[in-house]
Amino acid sequence: MKKVILSLAAVIIIVIIFIFNPFKGSSDSQSAPIQTSTATVERGNLIIAINSTGIIEPIQTVELKSKASGEIIEFPFEEGDPVTKGQQIVRLDPTTAKNEFDQAQADLEVATVALSQAIKQTDRQKQMYDQGLISELDYENALLAKEQANSNLIKAKTALDDAKERLSDTVIESPISGIMLIKYVEEGQIIASGISAVSGGTTIASVADLSKVSVRTSVDEVDIGQIQTGQKATVIAESYPDREFRGEVIRIHPQAIVEQNVTTFDVTIEVDNTDGLLMAGMNASVEIIAGFKENILLVPREALTDSRTIARMIGANPNSNGREPGNNNTGRQTPRPDESRSKTNPSKMVIAIVNGQQEPKQVEIGLSNFEQAEIISGLAEDDTVLTTVTSKALQDREQFLERMRSFNQIPGMEKKK
Question: What domains lie within the chain, and their CATH numbers?
């Protein structure tokens, strides 16, 4: 019964508040003055910065595999060790490859001697044929034997070259200079060839050049239009929060990525890592400088508006003297957007304070960020503009909504869970 009484009391209070609701067009709220704040047009520098996060990755990474199969008998490197191009990384057991090389070398020597003998025999057969001592068939057979011997020599040379290559394949060298990122195998392990195995062979190690690294970051589709290759960027790794690394945009990936209804584009930034402080996998924050201008006219972004907003503001402001946007009651029209000619820079409206009076003006803006906008034309340095307009009615409305929220504290009026 007590809860019912309290609920009825709360309903009565709400009804009373609605009866005295300040939004019913009372003359007090409508005639209350509008509170404003102003700002001065000043010269300064404007930076358009786009912030994001990403992970540091090597620009060049190579996975080492062996053309030969066999047992690893030497692998003296560990992860993090520096390597140079052409340096021996791994050596496999060369026994089988060395035997094949020795056999191929012996076969080549035999083929060389056989060809020499075939050439001499052919010369003798030719002399005898010229003297009529042998038949033409015997002479042709001698020529055929010489060509066969020459063919065997070529085969022996090819076999020796192949055996030499297989022997050299038992030594794996680094194709680049850099750092050994990952070591996949150890000494004593038997690995499969990367060219003969169906699986693609055994990966021995990963080597990366970390003299330059990249950060692949995601940029919202709203900002991607401001990103261009060659723009400068600042990268701060979480491991070095007090140090800035300089980078440059090298790639804008054309395929969008949509996750949870958010569309982004990947952007790759190259960062100089001569000092070797940045390592693969580090988290980093990125600031891309999409625009920068010095010594330009600047106004706060909140000072920019459009003609409709100005019309509503002037209609609610008793101090506006009934002026309308574009008309200062002097017979002189404030410039309006010229639809007959296109402009590179967009147009906006501001309310300037001229001789103590509010005067709508059209301005042409250039670069802008969340705080400031560049003024191309329409205002001069030290001009004063309105930045915020807050009416008494709006303040009363916020107070009323706050009182309504307080009813959640009245017993019996709690929100149902």
Answer: 1-29+400-417 (no CATH), 30-44+297-394 (2.40.420.20), 49-58+210-293 (2.40.30.170), 63-205 (2.40.50.100)
> For 178-216, what is each residue's pLDDT tens digit?
999 999 999 999 999 888 766 778 999 999 999 899 999
The Cα-based distances of 36 to 5, 23, 188, 318, 383 in angstroms read 45, 21, 81, 13, 16
What is the 8-class DSSP label of residue 321? Answer: T
Collapsing DSSP to helix, strand or coil, 239 comes out as: coil
| pTM summary value | 0.58
* The pairing of beta strand 347-354 with beta strand 88-92: unpaired
DSSP state of 329: S
C-alpha distances in Å from residue 397, one per residue of 13, 26, 214, 301, 393:
17, 12, 52, 25, 6
Q: Rounded distance, CA 360 to CA 328, Å?
A: 8
End-to-end CA distance of the chain: 22
**How far apart are alpha carbons 109 and 107 in whole angstroms?**
5
Give the model confidence (pLDDT) of 341-371 as tens digits: 334 567 888 888 888 888 888 899 888 877 8
